[in-house]
Every structure is written in C-alpha cells, then in structure tokens.
Write a structure and sequence with these properties.
This protein has 371 residues and is of the alpha/beta class. It has helices spanning 31-36, 51-58, 75-82, 94-105, 113-121, 129-134, 141-155, 161-177, 197-200, 203-217, 258-268, 296-309, 327-335; strands at 65-68, 86-90, 226-228, 242-245, 250-251, 314-320, 323-324, 341-353, 358-370. The protein folds into 3 domains: 1-32, no CATH class; 38-107 and 223-254 and 292-371, 3-Layer(aba) Sandwich (Rossmann fold); 109-218, no CATH class. Helix 2 (51-58) crosses helix 3 (75-82), helix 5 packs across helix 7 (141-155) and helix 8 packs across helix 10. Residues 1-21 and 353-358 have low confidence and may be disordered. The structure holds S-adenosylmethionine. S-adenosylmethionine binds next to helix 3.
C-alpha cells in the first residue's frame, strides 16, 4: 500500500471527503485529487477553494505550455501541472518562488530522513539574528532559536530543490504557528489559549510535519516546469500558449499589500540579506517592492500593459467584484488584444486573518478568458 496522497491540505476545501487512508499500488490520483492535495498556504487571495471551477474552465482551452504570472501560494500553477501542462510559475516575492520551486518545478527530489535529522538537529551557526530581532514580536524564544538554527542548516544544503522543499516547509510552518497567519501584529502563539493544534505545536514539530507534506506533494508530470522570481513586466512573454493572471486587486477598502502581511516570510527565506528592515515599525516590516496593481491611479494602465505583453497567448484573468477597475473596463482592455472575450462567474467567499478579526468577504469571482 502506498501512502495517502490526499491529506491534511484538503481539510478546508469542498473536497474534504477525499481524504484517503491508503491507496492501492499503481493508483493515480485524478487531476483534482492531486490539485486539492496541494499544501495550501493561508495566503491572501488564494484561489485554492476555486480550483475545481478553474479546472473546469481551463480544461476546455487548447494549451500545452502555461505561465502562472502571479503565482502567490502556487496552487493554480500546481493545478496546471496536475493537468499535464508545462508550467512556469512566477511571482516577485521570493518566498512564493521557493514554494513554486518545491512543488511545481520539482519533479523528483524529496528530503530523506537523514537530511531531515541534520536540518532539525544540526549545529546551525552562532548567528542569532532572528532571535535578537523578533524576540517579543513573533513566536516563543525557543521557536526563534530553532529558526536561527534550522535556517543555517538549510543554507548548508546545495542550492536547488532540496533547499526549496526545506524552505517551503519552513514557510508553511511559520504561517501555521502564527495566530492569524499574517505578520501585521506582534503576538506570541502561547498567549492564544484557544486550543488550536497549530498554535500548540512548536515550530520544530511543525517543520518535521511539513517536510513530510511537501515531500508528498512532489510528482513528475513528464514536463520541464520552472519557478521564476521576477516582476511580471520583466518576463519574456514568448513561449506560453496560455497565461493565467491573478494580480492583486486594488480593493475598495483596506489595502492589498502582501509584504505588510508576509514580510517575515520574505525576510526569512534570505535571512533578511539585501532587504531593508523598517526599524521604526513595531513588527520590523521590510520595504515593499513597487507594483502598479496596488494603486488606483495606475491599475488600469497596468492591466492594459499586462494584456498587451502577453497578447500572443490565451489570456485568463482571475478577478473579483470587490476589485478596481470594474469588470467592464477589464473586458474592454482585453478586447483590445483578443477577438473573443468570455466571462465566467461564480459566487465566492474569501476569508483571511487581519489584525481586526477573520474577514469574510462575499464576492462574485470572475475568470475572464481572451482567445
Ligand atoms: C492574488 S495573489 C495570487 C494568488 C495566487 N493565484 C494563489 O492562488 O495563491 C497576487 C500575487 O501577485 C504578486 N505580484 C504583485 N505584483 C507583482 C508583479 N509586479 N510582478 C510579479 N508578481 C506580482 C504578489 O506577490 C502576490 O503573490
């Protein structure tokens, strides 16, 4: 009997009934089983719960090569990998890129028991940057000491997929142990006495679990898949039959800043090397990279440039009714590049933690397809 492929990651999805407890030799998961087994991050704007619908729309389109241009948690790129496509996942955040490298680009490499033991119990280094910088802000002192040690042990691995799996596992561990999954407010998990397992488990225990989960996410679809870390406008647009675009939307309220919420993960993957910490901020945020999709005054022009850049490919845009610009404007912009533009719609409810509470936004979700 083989280990279950579909596991914990399906818990919050419609597919929770798919949890398998042992599967026969030679069993091949379906595209959706595979996609919904993805170790999803609690990531703002994640399309994880929309994967069945996205799959239904994508499977009718003629494509072999695809770009997930704003990959975020990586789940849509992983769906396309499960569909057997040659996938390139791109995001300008480094931590997103490591997750995509571990799950999408990686076809074969897993972390073995001995390597895991070296990562967890190896000597690390005498550097204590994380403990010194984030004491009293995030996590417990022993979690922070673990992060310093494991980071240097991960750094001792050769660059490549093994390192990416370890970093992806560490990223997901940090999100799970963080009370609301975001890094906007300080707070040690031990102060939340709500009994959640994710808050009770140390970062060390999370990491051991997550390495196993990312190991199980590895599969080979027979294609050469890639993970890229670029501003979308710097990408070479050639070579993609289809480009899936899920940029941040300028929201009607609050903001859409990923770095404000995930700065700790972005700093962690490079041990805060070459990033500027804003020392005056309580949670030690880092400076955010510029993206035109965050600003009302630039968003429309940014979509226009985006569609023009990838005009040689089938365009698939994820969008939602709470974003700016409005849907008719986006359809008009896409029509400048494409003869046929179709809009698929579906109601959706996003939820993610903020400093106020867990927000639940009821919206209509769109897939705008230009062919
Ligand atoms: C809505 S999220 C994508 C969510 C993703 N589809 C998922 O399901 O997890 C938008 C992503 O765009 C990235 N991003 C924003 N501006 C970018 C740019 N100019 N170039 C590349 N990536 C960008 C952000 O870092 C963020 O991960």
């Amino acid at each position: 009997m083989r280990r279950a492929v579909v596991r914990e990651a399906t818990r919050q999805s419609d597919a929770s009934q798919l949890v398998l407890t042992g599967t026969p030799e030679g069993w091949q998961p379906s595209i959706l089983d595979r996609a919904l087994s993805y170790p999803q991050l609690r990531f703002m704007g994640s399309k994880f719960r929309l994967l069945p619908w996205i799959n239904m729309v994508l499977r009718d389109l003629p494509f072999e090569t695809a770009l997930d241009a704003f990959s975020g948690s990586g789940c849509v790129g992983y769906l396309m990998k499960a569909m057997g496509k040659e996938v390139t996942a791109n995001d300008f955040l480094r931590f997103s890129c490591f997750v995509a490298q571990a799950t999408i680009a990686n076809s074969r490499v897993r972390i073995g028991k001995e390597t895991l033991r070296d990562l967890v119990d190896g000597p690390g280094s005498d550097q204590r940057f994380i403990e010194k910088t984030f004491r009293g802000i995030f996590y417990t002192p022993s979690d922070l000491r673990f992060l310093d040690r494991v980071w240097w042990n991960i750094h001792a691995l050769p660059k490549g997929e093994e390192r990416a799996i370890a970093l992806a596992a560490l990223i997901r561990s940090c999100v799970k142990r963080q009370p609301r999954g975001v890094f906007t407010v300080a707070g040690d998990p031990d102060h939340y006495k709500d009994g959640r397992r994710d808050l009770r488990l140390s970062l060390r225990s999370h990491f051991i679990e997550q390495v196993d989960i990312f190991n199980q996410a590895v599969f080979d679809n027979g294609r050469l898949n890639r993970a890229v870390n670029q501003d979308v406008f710097r990408l070479d647009p050639s070579g993609y039959d289809l480009v899936y675009m899920d940029p941040p939307y300028v929201p009607r309220a609050d903001d859409n800043c990923y770095v404000k919420r995930y700065h700790f993960l972005e700093g962690l993957v490079c041990y805060w090397k070459d990033v500027e910490i804003l020392q005056e901020t309580r949670v030690k945020k880092i400076r955010k990279p510029y993206t035109p999709f965050s600003y009302r005054r630039n968003a429309e022009e940014a979509f226009d440039r985006l569609f023009a850049l990838f005009s040689g490919s089938i365009l698939v845009l994820s969008y939602s009714s709470n974003g700016y610009p409005d849907l008719p404007i986006l359809v008009k912009l896409m029509r400048r590049q494409k003869r046929k533009v179709e809009v698929h719609r579906r109601p959706h409810q996003y939820s993610f933690g903020t400093h106020h509470a867990v927000e639940r936004d009821k919206v209509e979700e769109y897939l705008v397809v230009g062919t």
